[in-house]
Write a structure and sequence with these properties.
alpha+beta, five-stranded antiparallel beta sheet, single chain, Thiol Ester Dehydrase, Chain A, two-stranded antiparallel sheet
Length: 132
């Protein structure tokens, strides 16, 4: 299993008229956390793209438990539980102190630049083998 905690702060741009984080922002938090998770293990997304691959999101899900508010410090806990093969699932848990605010996941495919499904690049597979 691979895991990483991404810390961020809720800014005014993140909240809705009710003063809580707008629901779509959680997917943006997921994206930032995912990028940092991959970077923490030596996978740079632009390097994968330069090798001729994309990692598009093919499914995304988020369950909202409790709203974060302006200036809250939150942590997005990310993890990959299984060795990615043709697809990669990344799970997320957004927390503030000990309270779970949201949980979700994104499912990614590997494609070439024309959108055709591919196996992950060898460089990616080599990094992942270290953790699984």
């Amino acid at each position: 299993m691979i895991s990483f905690d991404y810390s961020t702060k809720v800014y005014y741009k993140d909240i809705d008229q009710m003063g809580v984080v707008y629901y779509t922002r959680y997917l943006e938090y997921f994206e930032a956390a995912r990028t940092e998770l991959l970077k923490s293990i030596g996978v740079v997304v632009t390097d994968i793209e330069n090798e001729g691959f994309f990692l598009p999101v093919i499914s995304a899900h988020c369950d909202y438990k409790q709203g974060a508010k302006f200036e809250d410090e939150i942590i997005v806990r990310t993890c990959i539980r299984e060795l990615p093969r043709a697809r990669m699932k990344i799970e997320y848990e957004v927390v503030k102190n000990d309270a779970v605010l949201a949980i979700g996941y994104t499912l990614h495919g590997f494609t070439d630049h024309q959108g055709k499904a591919k196996r992950p690049p060898k460089s990616f597979q080599q990094v992942m083998q270290k953790y699984f």
